[in-house]
Amino acid sequence: LVRLRQRLAGAQGGFGRGLLALLSRERLDEDTWESIEDTLLTADVGVAPTQELVDRLRTRLRVGGAEAQDPREVLREELVALVGPDLDRRLQISGADGHPGVVLVVGVNGTGKTTTVGKLARILVAEDKSVVLGAADTFRAAAVEQLATWGERVGVEVVRGAEGGDPASVAFDAVREGDERGVDTVIVDTAGRLQNKAGLMDELGKVKRVIEKVAPVTEVLLVLDATTGQNGLIQARVFAEVVDVTGIVLTKLDGSAKGGIVVAVQRELGVPVKLVGLGEGPDDLAPFEPRAFVDALLG
Ligand code: GDP
């Protein structure tokens, strides 16, 4: 965890540290407040949250205010409040009535879906949970192979179908297999073709319906690439409209100065960020913790 924090700090320091440098100026004049706004917008915090934060900072750090305030402490408190310290970020990985928990992982191709499925399996296995993976991204042979490799690496079974086969039938087979074996959790990788909303809705809707003939879906994780900014947000909205997303996985935070997307996407979808991807390695997935995240931002 310490290592992950360091990585986040290394990549993310820019935006938090930049803000702090601006707020620590002797005179907080209009130019400075404009620079603060620019810094927040560039980091993808979003227009409304940026305005709210700047208003609160202006009030609390007003020149000649009642008491001298430590800008670092004020910024820290306000950033934590913005990120939502009280949202329920627990993953629903357990099922009820003897069924496994079923985690459906959705998102646009290339965002890091398959990698996230592999890393999540690894975390669960490390917690002594039994896991089955479903390779329902049948449209890309490479995705199925990639998941199979993760399965071998982590030591979990991967249920796969014929190439170009029906994703829903693979998802069904995976959940039935997990159900029969009595495992704790089945994680299903899905196809992320954004052909059109109706097509996506048909496909994901069918995957979910078919799975639920065996066991309820307990968690729907939407994977979002932090480096894609506003474009990624638009795509995220489309997914959220077709399936009930219960958590967000924000990947590639390591390579991005745009950590503010955490705030923007939670506002946009009304769903908490539950996990963050901090690299390509097997251990580079971590639960999202608002306070640790803000501390890392501030360096
Ligand atoms: P999918 O098409 O959504 O299943 O995406 P993949 O899982 O194949 O990932 C696409 C690329 O992003 C791969 O090269 C991954 O190694 C890389 N990737 C995934 N997550 C992260 C992350 O958190 N950080 C970085 N730097 N790369 C990542």
TrEMBL record:
<keyword id="KW-1133">Transmembrane helix</keyword>
<comment type="subunit">
    <text>Part of the signal recognition particle protein translocation system, which is composed of SRP and FtsY.</text>
</comment>
<keyword id="KW-0963">Cytoplasm</keyword>
<keyword id="KW-0812">Transmembrane</keyword>
<dbReference type="GO" id="GO:0005737">
    <property type="term" value="C:cytoplasm"/>
</dbReference>
<keyword id="KW-0378">Hydrolase</keyword>
<feature type="binding site">
    <location>
        <begin position="107"/>
        <end position="114"/>
    </location>
    <ligand>
        <name>GTP</name>
    </ligand>
</feature>
<dbReference type="GO" id="GO:0003924">
    <property type="term" value="F:GTPase activity"/>
</dbReference>
<dbReference type="GO" id="GO:0005886">
    <property type="term" value="C:plasma membrane"/>
</dbReference>
<comment type="function">
    <text>Involved in targeting and insertion of nascent membrane proteins into the cytoplasmic membrane. Acts as a receptor for the complex formed by the signal recognition particle (SRP) and the ribosome-nascent chain (RNC).</text>
</comment>
<keyword id="KW-0547">Nucleotide-binding</keyword>
<keyword id="KW-0675">Receptor</keyword>
<feature type="binding site">
    <location>
        <begin position="251"/>
        <end position="254"/>
    </location>
    <ligand>
        <name>GTP</name>
    </ligand>
</feature>
<keyword id="KW-1003">Cell membrane</keyword>
<dbReference type="GO" id="GO:0006614">
    <property type="term" value="P:SRP-dependent cotranslational protein targeting to membrane"/>
</dbReference>
<dbReference type="GO" id="GO:0005525">
    <property type="term" value="F:GTP binding"/>
</dbReference>
<feature type="binding site">
    <location>
        <begin position="189"/>
        <end position="193"/>
    </location>
    <ligand>
        <name>GTP</name>
    </ligand>
</feature>
<keyword id="KW-0472">Membrane</keyword>
<keyword id="KW-0342">GTP-binding</keyword>
<comment type="similarity">
    <text>Belongs to the GTP-binding SRP family. FtsY subfamily.</text>
</comment>
<feature type="domain" description="SRP54-type proteins GTP-binding">
    <location>
        <begin position="272"/>
        <end position="285"/>
    </location>
</feature>
<protein>
    <recommendedName>
        <fullName>Signal recognition particle receptor FtsY</fullName>
        <ecNumber>3.6.5.4</ecNumber>
    </recommendedName>
</protein>
<dbReference type="GO" id="GO:0005047">
    <property type="term" value="F:signal recognition particle binding"/>
</dbReference>
